[in-house]
Here is the input.
Amino acid sequence: MTTSSTPTSTTPPPSGDGTLHRAIGPKLLILFVIGDILGTGIYATTGKVAGKVGGALWLPFVIGFVVAILTAASYVELVGKYPKAAGAALYTQKAFKVPFLTFIIAFMVMCSGLSSASAAARAFSGDYLGELTNDALPPTLVAILFVLALAALNLRGVSESVKANVVLTMVELTGLLIILTIGAYAVLTGEGEPSRLTEFEASGSGFALMTGVLGATALGFFAFVGFEDSVNMAEETKDPTRTFPRAIFIGVAVTGTIYVLVALVSSLLVDHTTLESSSGPLLEVVKAGGLDFPHKLFALIALFAVTNSALINIMMASRLCYGMANERILPRAMGRVLPARRTPVVGIVFVSLLAIGLVSTGEIEGLGDTTAFLLLCVFAVVNVAVLVLRKDRVEHRHFRTPTVLPVLGAVTALILASPLADRPAEVYVRAGVLVAIGIALWAVNKLVMKARTED
Here is the structure.
């Protein structure tokens, strides 16, 4: 991996007045990336991945790690080249200059946040909460109340600093380290069943096995999403062209290693059918591990992890909605703020209603797969964009990924987003409905703006 040979200076152009404060250094950014990736995916969907692939649970996470690294390399080049807080939408607009495509990409990113938050709400209402309440509460109602509570918190005003995110990351990471400690103890004491690690759920071989592994990888990829959000911190990062390559690659590598190890431990200690049937699969690992770790304490850690993921995603989605309204991409009414709190009230209400619809009609597996599908489509476009933008030279030095990586990134993203990944039709329907809502809002906004122009 190399740096571009065309630049003439080592830093991006100096910031002018009114820019954000550059307060994030290399260590904080690494922790931010790790914290953004960790969360609902590994805590909630590990069992569903096991249900698709069987005991070889580790394999989809290894493949997902490779796919994540390929796309991360494209994001690193683009954020170094254009250190602005706009992410995939900015890169799409610069590469293709088609406003409608840019809008679709931005709206898909927003919807991926909503489906991720909805998966977290479903995870919150499942077995982790059941460990504390003895399964006395109806899951769908709990999930809806969970979304409403997050909406209320957003309306009141949630100001999360990166240093606070470090604390949240450490709590989430603690839960996964507990799983790894349990696994190490099991290996040292001869517990577990190593033969499960090479068992595949798909019968036969060839095409059936391939689609089974691809389907498990597509769902498991949900655990890796989050690194793409970190590029929105570019304007608040010290020397982003130097800081981001190390931060994103280390962040993805650390989380990928943890995920593979957690998958190995999970399959070693718990049969894949038990994992599949649980909405709190890592709690099953704690129970089977042989160490006397309090089950309720681990359940609390898991609830904290999925709550943090949901809160971040609801915040991101509502702010994207607000930003698109301010850019006149969505109806202006969606950019209104609550006078007393200065929070995007219409945006929060809109995304919360969509989230309630999602949790009312989907389960963890389908919602997680919807998140992965939407982002895989976005990642395919970003990987192509990095190649298109090679002709656009900039003044400062920046990371330049080998050309083969974005090519492989685009191909692998498209394969995992395709029907070859053996995902249920409901995932495509759900994603299609979300995008159709966005297109309808786009069309309404165009008609309103045209009417105003004619008047």
